Amino acid sequence: MTMASVQTVRGSIDSSELGRTLCHEHVFVLGEEHRLNYEQWDEEAQIADAVSQLNELKGLGMDTIMDPTVLGLGRYIPRIQRIAEQSELNIVVATGIYTYNDVPFQFHYTGPGLLFDMPEPMVELFTKDLTEGIADTGVRAAFLKCAIEEQGLTPGVERVMRAVGQTSVQTGAPITVHTNVHNQSGLVAQQVLREEGVDLTKVVIGHSGDSTDLDYLTELADAGSLLGMDRFGLDVLLPFEDRVETVAELCRRGYAEKVVLAHDASCTIDWFPADAKRQVVPRWNYRHISEDVLPALQERGVTDADIELMLVTNPRRYFE
């Protein structure tokens, strides 16, 4: 396997140092504009809590999280840097835009064929994040993120996705796509990215784990992409047993080399009231895969070799 250097918040590491990797975890999901105006926020307490949760995850044997928090989800790297300095866990960050509908107003009038007609500004910004660094932090993104939800391929979603695809082709950076399984939007994402010349083996079809439809999942995998079985703990969207059994069946069919694992959890998310979140999805936290999911997979005959593929080899290959 060829080595590659992977950018983390603390700097570049060799891909062989990624270790056990959860491929889709957020540290914070925040509306920064909302937070500044309406939320009670104790920065030091939030940082301390995040450090505690991430160090606990490291203690459970995980080495790296990939954090796809981009524009639209409250990416603020200086806060993440402070956390990374106090944790042994590698944090790998992303660039891109998270939208289900429109592009942000900063791009509404600016771009090819628009009022201010110029090359796609998103490509320039994403490329800077990947090659020079995010803002003035010196931290470089290592992968790209876009989304396609139940609304499907709206003009805004398509524009972001094509900009992400073009950036991937130009830089070699891999891609993670937030998808909705109920309209099989992973297939739409593959089609758009394929049109832009993207290598689909460098793409994680995120939130594939919300589906039990093995025909859909194997079609995505057969086209080359990795399946993000990455919402363990969100049992309200699909029960634990169904999530585990679907991964086990993929492994039985020889697809372990196409699966990556995660929770899509966060230390703090301002989309829901914190107390209600704990009641509705009590296992939606970073510990769940280590404590509950891996033992349940092993009970269903998933081998240590398959777990190594899903947690270590596949994330590593994604960056190589």
UniProtKB/TrEMBL annotation:
The modification N6-carboxylysine is found at K145. InterPro entries: AryldialkylPase_Zn-BS, Metal_Hydrolase, Phosphotriesterase. Its cofactor is a divalent metal cation. Zn(2+) 1 binds at H24, H26, K145, D264. Zn(2+) 2 binds at K145, H178, H207. Binds 2 divalent metal cations per subunit. The keyword GTP-binding does not apply. GO terms for molecular function: hydrolase activity, acting on ester bonds; zinc ion binding. This is Phosphotriesterase-related protein.
